[in-house]
UniProtKB/TrEMBL annotation:
Highest taxon, organism lineage: Bacteria
GO function terms (MF aspect): ferrous iron binding; oxidoreductase activity, acting on single donors with incorporation of molecular oxygen, incorporation of two atoms of oxygen
Pfam families: LigB
Protein name in UniProt: Protocatechuate 3,4-dioxygenase
Stored InterPro entries: Xdiol_dOase_suB
Domain Extradiol ring-cleavage dioxygenase class III enzyme subunit B: from-to ranges: 7-268
Keywords: Dioxygenase, Oxidoreductase
Xref: Gene3D superfamilies: LigB-like
């Protein structure tokens, strides 16, 4: 029987990759962010998940503005990291899991979602940076199922649609009958805007609202529509949609084990949250 053991939520600022490459984890600028991963390393040591399902947004690598799916699920045997630069030297293979990808796709299509299915797929910093943060040494011990959400080209999906997608993925995982442990990732955020007159925009109040409610009351995050979130959190802060979807996939009793918030990393309010998911007894 499969088990969803928890959720890891983290910013994916590409500069974090540069800091890892240069070994700057203890540098005063970076330390407050990297310190947030201590509890996550302990959790992963303890739980030893077999699979990671990652809700993230592609930034123009695998999809560009000419073809932008609202939702896409990877079903590739492996995923190459081909990020845009920043001195990141990550070339570790990310093994895929086509059997589980197709199980998820079958199940969510049956639930009336219409994802693009990707049998070849590259991933950018939004997957690679969280993986490097979670498993800094050796090979990645998990098989990856990437779920891409359009947070880039409007119109973007609503927070409720993303939450419902996450719930549908969570139901698919509950019906996966291999004896495997699964960890969910939601990447991106928190508030940030990289361009235009509001470049550097950060909204501590909105970020704290999201962090406060993520575990106990995720539906509170649905009260703002997508354009409200752009206004509140910035044009890239809307990456919180990935967190909302990931939280939807945790369908058991959810408890916060760790939370870290540090402003700024690059132009971003950086946050890391670890949620434990204790499954309710299945019918
Ligand atoms: C930054 C943050 C992001 O989420 C991203 O995708 C690119 C850059 C930044 O703060 O530099
Ligand atoms: Fe981003």
């Amino acid at each position: 029987m499969s088990e969803v053991v928890g959720g890891i939520f983290t910013s994916h600022v590409p500069g974090i990759g540069g800091a890892i490459t240069k070994g700057l984890q203890h540098d005063p600028y970076w330390k407050p962010f990297f310190d947030g991963f201590g509890p996550i390393h302990a959790f992963l040591q303890r739980e030893k998940p077999d699979v990671a399902v990652v809700f993230y947004n592609d930034h123009g690598l695998n999809f560009f503005l000419d073809k932008m799916p609202t939702f896409a699920v990877g079903a590739a045997p492996d995923y190459r990291h081909e990020d845009e630069g920043w001195g990141i030297a990550f070339d570790r293979p990310m093994p895929g899991y086509p059997d589980l990808s197709w199980h998820i796709i079958e199940s969510i299509v049956n639930d009336e979602f219409d994802p693009v299915t990707c049998q070849t797929m590259t991933v950018d910093h939004a997957v690679a940076v969280p993986f490097e943060l979670a498993w800094p040494d050796g090979d990645f011990p998990v098989k990856l199922v990437p779920v891409a959400i359009n947070t880039v080209q409007h119109p973007l999906p609503s927070p409720k649609r993303c939450y419902d997608l996450g719930k549908a993925v969570g139901r698919a995982l509950e019906s996966w009958d291999r004896d495997e442990k699964i960890v969910i990732f939601g990447t991106g955020g928190l508030s940030h805007q990289l361009e235009g007159g509001r470049a550097g925009h950060i909204n501590v109040d909105y970020d704290k609202f999201c962090l406060r409610n993520l575990a106990p009351d995720p539906e509170a995050l649905l009260q703002h529509d997508t354009l409200d979130i752009v206004e509140l959190a910035g044009s890239q802060g809307v990456e919180i949609l990935n967190w909302i979807a990931a939280r939807g996939a945790l369908r058991g009793s959810v408890r916060e084990l760790a939370s870290n918030y540090h402003v700024p990393i690059s132009n971003t309010a950086a946050a890391t949250v670890l949620l434990e998911n204790r499954e309710k007894v299945r019918a």
